[in-house]
Amino acid sequence: MYYQSPYRTAKSKPKIIKVAGEGKISIEPDIAEIRLGVSTENSALAKAQEENARAISDIKKALTTAGIPENEIKTADYSIHPQYDYVEGRQVFKNYRVEHMLLIKVAEINRAGAIVDTAVRNGANVVSGVTFETSRYEEFYRQALSLAVLDARRKAETIAETLNVLLSKVPLSIVEITDGKMIPYQTKTFAVSEASTSFHPGTLAIISRVHAEFTYASM
């Protein structure tokens, strides 16, 4: 977003105050995106793929039964890697590892833990992370942008008052610099136990930044 003021003459170069403004909105997220899947290993590639496909199918069926729409369960990554051992300094083939990761969107974040537990009970053995987001991002971002502009204006006014100069009411220019943030929950290790999984997403920070220029004149 860029605004250019007509306040500029060919006769004189305007005196300018340059400032940066920041606006921040803290909200509670209402969407969870879960990344989990299945890793299988076998010396026969076809066997590893078959075992993996079966587990993924079981997970998808269990999740749809739990109320997750099919279109909210997507493949995030699929990879095949040969595994090797080193014997007396030589690389010796061990087996193949097949990994299929799913990205699951959960509209009710209080169910995120239960969804993870359901997937694990049905074959998931990799949980790589959970990201919390908001379905009203654009609305909150615009609020943050407005706060950023006001912040820039207040800073320019402070500088002008300190210098005892007259600040123009309309900025010469405003440049929007976007920067949204999310709060991720990253799981490096995941242990299957009788205890249920729970997540604490905290708050989501949505931040907007602008650079602004204001002209000023002597009092």
From TrEMBL:
Domain of life the protein comes from: Bacteria
GO biological process: DNA damage response
One Pfam family from the record: SIMPL
Coiled coil: none
Name assigned to this protein: DUF541 domain-containing protein
Source taxonomy: Bacteria, Bacillati, Bacillota, Bacilli, Bacillales
